[in-house]
From TrEMBL:
HD-GYP domain location: 127-314
InterPro entries (UniProt xref): HD/PDEase_dom (IPR003607), HD_GYP_dom (IPR037522)
SMART domains assigned: HDc
The protein, known as: HD-GYP domain-containing protein
């Protein structure tokens, strides 16, 4: 069997720090050549050589993914806890790492990659709950396209930031467990055929059933990975429920829907409204929030929405 390679973002490799494993370059589809040996210092000259070639990625052998992930988490923890590093640089570091690890998890949702993603989410959540300026930078860094892993990264950032506002000072809420649920809420979408996921027109009844199945598919994938928590279970299963009972998969009504799911639902709707999708043009933040206030928010959502609006002030 041919060796499998995984992409690593150039931005996650730290200057003057030893490469965590052998690094490779892609010269064409499924063809990789050796670039740098494990232990070699990754300096600016090396980075510039890669950029000059028109690439922003290097590659590692899949068998060394755990080794690289440990390096990445160690690097992020060091950056996040270093008072000399500015908030914008901390935000950029965790944002890049989240996008990379979630892309891998959504493209190949094996337990090993889901576990690695959750490891990287830990310093990300810690940054959001401890640094207001970094959180503002993270919110401004959110990029809007129709990739599910980008959507999930954005929703995770919005949701943890909102949970911090709503539950400030209440230690009974486990932010790390919430983070796993928020960032993996749409994992089941990786099973939806791309032609349905990106369909520009109305879905047929059959296609809608396939899309709605992503909730249970995502639940089953996280459950089978051994990473399920009570918080993640609630978020994944309830984030498409509606107060009027017309949501899915269990048609829950107002008082049956957990606040965690409400947080995720509002962040999910906002992200969808502000992203370019095949079936609609993106709205500005103001337009999206105005639409949500007029057409989405019901009585039980009022307090959650008031907190959500605060994320976009100043």
């Amino acid at each position: 069997m041919d060796e499998q390679f995984l992409p690593v973002a150039l931005a996650t490799l730290q200057f003057e720090k030893a490469a965590p494993c052998d690094l490779y370059r892609s010269i064409r589809d499924d063809k990789y050549v050796f670039f740098a040996k494990k232990g070699v210092l990754f300096d600016r000259a090396t980075r510039d050589r890669v950029i000059a070639s028109g690439a922003d990625l290097l590659y590692i052998r899949e068998e060394e993914s755990a080794l690289y992930n440990s390096y990445l988490k160690e690097t992020l923890v060091s950056i996040v806890t270093d008072p000399a590093v500015t908030s914008d640089k901390k935000a950029a570091a965790v944002h890049t790492a989240c996008l990379q690890t979630l892309q891998r998890a959504f493209e190949e949702p094996r337990a090993v990659f889901l576990g690695q993603a959750c490891e990287i989410l830990e310093p990300t959540v810690n940054l959001i709950v401890s640094d207001d300026q970094a959180t503002k930078h993270l919110i401004h860094l959110t990029t809007y396209d129709h990739s599910t892993y980008v959507h999930s990264t954005n929703v995770g950032i919005f949701s943890i930031a909102l949970a911090r506002i709503l539950f400030s000072g209440d230690s009974q809420h486990d932010m790390q467990a919430l983070g796993a649920g928020f960032f993996l809420h749409d994992l089941g979408k990786c099973k939806i055929p791309i032609d349905i996921l990106n369909k520009p027109g109305m879905l047929t009844d059959e296609e809608r059933e396939i899309v709605n199945q992503h909730v249970l598919d995502g639940y089953q994938m996280v459950e089978s990975s051994g990473l399920m928590t009570d918080e993640a279970r609630t978020i994944i299963l309830q984030h498409h429920e509606r107060d009027d009972g017309r949501g899915y998969p269990n048609q829950k009504r107002a008082d049956e829907i957990h606040p965690y799911a409400r947080i995720c639902r509002l962040a999910d709707i906002y992200e969808a409204l502000t992203a370019d999708r095949p079936y609609h043009n993106s709205r500005s933040s103001f337009e999206a929030l105005k639409f949500m206030k007029e057409h989405v928010i019901s009585g039980p959502d009022e307090q959650v929405f008031a907190g959500f609006v605060k994320l976009f002030l100043a």
